[in-house]
Amino acid sequence: MSAADGASAIPALVASARARFRSGATRPLRWRLDQLDGVARFFGEREREILEALHEDLGKPSIEAYGAELSFVANDLAHVRKHLGGWMRAEKVRLPLVARPGSSEVRREPLGVVLIIAPWNYPFQLLMAPLVAALAAGNAAVLKPSEVSRHTSALFARLLPRYLDAQAVRVVEGGVPETTALLAERFDHVFYTGGGRVGRIVMRAAAEHLTPVTLELGGKSPCIVHRSADLDVAARRIAWGKFFNAGQTCVAPDYVLVDERVHDALVHRLVATVRSFYGDDPETSPDYARIVNVQHHRRLMGLLGEGQVLCGGTGDEATRYLAPTILRDVPPSAPVMEEEIFGPILPVVAVSDVNAALRFVNARPHPLALYVFAGDAAVQEQVLEGTSSGGAVVNHCMLHLAVPDLPFGGVGESGMGSYHGRWGFETFSHRRGVLKKPTRIDPPIMYPPFSRLAKAVLRRLL
Ligand code: NAD
Asked: Within this chain, do residues 371 and 416 fall inside the same structural domain, yes or no?
């Protein structure tokens, strides 16, 4: 459904997806595998158009788009496809004496019709990866791509239904009015990725129907660099994580807290790394993305102003270019240290030691990711034990997303619930506890009236 169809078409569209779910067609393994194969064919046959749309939306370098969008989802899909039969198998559990004889098991059942709302920064991955999980779990799905990444959104609406059960999987294009109309409908799960402000709107709307939600939000993901870190590697990996997709990544390192004894050595290496990645003029680099739109460009330029600019600090609104920027001596009260940056600006803050870094992190909401660079294993553990975050990586950035068996999601203000691999299948499944009893044996001692003997026996049994 395109935005031109208007929000009024939404109730009928959701009802049709629900009718398809109720028919039972989406439950069998065969249907699920067919849908996953359809998604895989969509990638395979439409790769060029997908990469073009991503380039038009975000100037995504093709290798970034291929790695973080297409192949990322393809790998997750292959993993899910391989294990799905096993995950769907009912899980036997032991019976306590009181429930014997009998058998009991946990069944994973589809939830029904789920709503997936995606943001613009990885417009392909963040719609497709939840869809893979929802289909694997046997659900019908309504998809709402972000209107901000409009080329990718239009591509989904035009092409995706051709590869899938077009009644069970619906694409709704549009912005606030369409999303508001969708949220007024009853879904069986809402999976939202985006900022916390809209996350609250989504959760409030879902509460009206007592619909469970997964909220994949953001936040300021810190990088802690200890003096025992390999600084060359740390600088390379932090700069890679930060400037990938021009910093518009929910798990990008937002800022660096570095031991003051190695602060100068690290910033020197970070600046040199930026030059080695993107040359003297990053604007001409084919490996550097653009800011998604003018509003975000203005917001990011507005974050510059406090702290010393070590490199970058310039931009061109017309082309939405913003130079990879490294700042030092930024006061903790500066706006760039208060809101999630979500762009190619990296403030580096010196701290006296690890404890000061932990105090800094723990005085703020739980981030989506936390990165610690340290050679000393005791320091690595001290940081992991002393903080909370959605996920964490030691001595690298962002790569935890590529491990399909790691749950990906936030905690506290960075979100609730998780997905990827089996975790996504679990998110979109209901775990139904089933006990089966034979009727052959039905001791009267279980029922009133209870004699003294019956009570004594039951007290031992229960
Ligand atoms: P966005 O503006 O594209 O919004 C996300 C979705 O919410 C869109 O589909 C949009 O149509 C919808 N929306 C916007 N306003 C709405 C409203 N008033 N009512 C209902 N729906 C509405 O994306 P964004 O929020 O700018 O995304 C950036 C944020 O997302 C950052 O905070 C980032 O960290 C976070 N993020 C998180 C993850 C993750 O996996 N946890 C991934 C990417 C981005």
From this structure: no
CA distances 97 to 60, 264, 336, 432, Å, are 61, 67, 60, 21
Question: What are the φ and ψ backbone dihedral angles of 236, each rounded to 5 degrees?
Answer: -65, -45
Residue 285 lies in a domain: yes
- Alpha-carbon distance of 75 to 87, in angstroms, equals 17
Q: Which of 196, 175, 183, 63 is nearest to 120 (CA)?
A: 175
196 lies in the same domain as 227: no
Task: Compute the radius of gyration of the chain from its Cα atoms.
Answer: 25
| Ligand 1 contacts CB of residue 198 (under 6 A) | yes
Q: Residue 42's domain spans which residues?
A: 3-217+412-434
Residue 254: what are its φ and ψ, rounded to 5°? -80, -45
Residue 12 structure tokens: 């009928």
Query: How many domains does the chain fold into?
Result: 2
CA 178 to chain centre: 22
- Three state DSSP letters for 64-115: HHHHHHHHHHHHHHHHHHHHHHHHHCCEEECCCHHHCCCEEEEEEEECCEEE
Inter-axis angle of helices 263-278 and 231-243, to 10 degrees? 50
Nearest ligand 1 atom to the CA of 145 is 9
What pLDDT was estimated at residue 1? 66
Mean pLDDT of 82-110: 96
pLDDT mean across residues, the chain: 96
Give the orientation angle of helix 176-184 with respect to helix 10-22, to 10 degrees. 50
Share of the chain above pLDDT 70, in %: 99
Q: Which residues are known to be catalytic?
A: 216, 250
Going by their DSSP bridges, the two strands 345-351 and 315-316 should be labelled as unpaired
- Tell me if 392 is assigned to some domain: yes
Mean pLDDT of 49-77: 93
User: Ligand 1 within 6 A of 148 CB?
Assistant: yes
AA letter at 213? V
DSSP state at residue 164: S
For atom 19 of ligand 1, the residue with the nearest CA is 176
Q: How far is the CA of 388 from the centre of ligand 1 (A)?
A: 23
**71 and 201 housed in the same domain:** yes
Whether 157 and 284 map to the same domain: the answer is no
Given ligand 1 and candidates 58, 144, 193, which is best to mutate, with the most ligand atoms within 8 Å of its CB? 193
3-state helix, strand, coil in the chain (%, to 5): 50, 20, 35
Quick: pLDDT tens for 141-164: 999 999 999 999 999 999 999 999
**C-beta 407 within 6 A of ligand 1:** no
123 Cβ inside 6 Å of ligand 1:
no
Query: Over 60: is that where the pLDDT of 3 sits?
Result: no
